[in-house]
Amino acid sequence: MITMALAKGRIYQETLPFLAAAGIYPVEDPEKSRKLMIATNRDDLRIVVIRATDVPTYVQYGAADIGVCGWDTLYEHGGNGLFIPVDLQIAKCRMSVAAPNGLDYDGLVRRGGRIRIATKFMKWARDYFAQQGVHVDLIKLYGSMELAPIAGLADAIVDIVATGATLKANNMREVRQIAPISSRLIVNQISMGLKRVELSPIIENIRKASNKND
Ligand SMILES: Nc1ncnc2c1ncn2[C@@H]1O[C@H](COP(=O)(O)OP(=O)(O)OP(=O)(O)O)[C@@H](O)[C@H]1O
Ligand SMILES: O=P(O)(O)OC[C@H]1O[C@H](OP(=O)(O)OP(=O)(O)O)[C@H](O)[C@@H]1O
Questions:
Q1: What lines the ligand 1 site, CB under 6 Å?
Q2: Taking 80 as the threshold, does the pLDDT of residue 121 lie above it?
Q3: Cα 54 to Cα 77: distance, rounded to the nearest angstrom
Q4: Which GO MF term does the entry hold, naming one (predicted)?
Q5: What is the pLDDT of residues 15-59, one digit of tens each?
Q6: Domain limits at 69?
């Protein structure tokens, strides 16, 4: 049996064409069903539907053999025990530093004082500011990062930006782009050895479908 970990929402819909390319069709729509484990047209392949941030954890520990998750989530997780064979080029966005329109972010950086950053991406923020030599105090949040500067909790945020609409609606702007983000196919390294015969064709068909989109 092969178990695939997928998250509801953005990534799920964009992943379906890649599953179809590998001959995999879920029998139910997880957006409509309350079921957390979904069968597919293949007796030997099932899908577990979990939070986006839990996908790398399920695959790392082998509770799922294969999964799809954003590079933002994957980098934050650390990638232990994971093989990352394909960039699907879906759910594209970027990791950025954003600040209120009224804040002189460049001046703040130049003066070398400590900057208060709110984020749910602690590793991204820690690594980025360390590499830039910028002193920061990080404040961990679990959502609505854009509220933190408005409410006076932080000077700036590290978060995902796609269209920029959320920043604009909250009188903020992108002041630095940290990295482009897209979703990746991830595979448990031990499964890759033990279930190579079953997993290889799935990975190769998904890889071919992603090359066609280039
Ligand atoms: N606005 C966006 N536009 C495009 N892709 C995005 C956007 N926001 C997030 N993503 C990508 O889609 C992935 C899943 O996002 P989604 O909103 O479904 O989950 P999440 O809310 O970040 O995770 P969780 O539900 O575990 O908190 C993210 O990891 C990221 O790679
Ligand atoms: O640039 P935009 O197109 O406006 O997209 C950016 C927004 O998308 C993400 O939030 P999401 O909608 O996933 O909400 P969540 O973080 O609460 O899950 C992110 O945290 C931003 O708030």
A1: 7, 9-11, 51-53, 70, 72-73, 91, 93, 160, 162, 181, 183
A2: yes
A3: 9
A4: ATP binding
A5: 999 999 999 999 999 989 899 999 999 999 999 999 999 999 999
A6: 2-91+182-212
> Quick one: pLDDT at residue 35?
92
CA 169 to ligand 2: nearest atom? 4
What does the alpha-carbon distance between residue 23 and residue 35 come to, in Å, rounded to a whole number?
22
CB contact at 8 A, 14 and 183: yes
Identify whether residues 100 and 206 lie together within a single domain.
no
Determine which residue's CA is closest to atom 20 belonging to ligand 1. 52
Q: Angle, to 10 degrees, between the axis of helix 196-212 and the axis of helix 10-21?
A: 110
Same domain, 20 and 84: yes
Q: How far is the CA of 97 from the centre of ligand 1 (A)?
A: 17
Residues 209, 87: contact at Cβ < 8 Å?
no
Q: What is the CATH number of the domain that holds 40?
A: 3.40.190.10
- Count how many domains the chain has: 2
Residues present in the chain in total? 214
CA–CA dist 125, 110 (Å, integer): 18
Sign of CA dihedral 174, 165, 171, 73: negative
Q: Which amino acid residue places its CA nearest to atom 9 of ligand 1?
A: 160
pLDDT tens per residue, range 155-211: 999 999 999 999 999 999 999 999 999 999 999 999 999 999 999 999 999 999 999
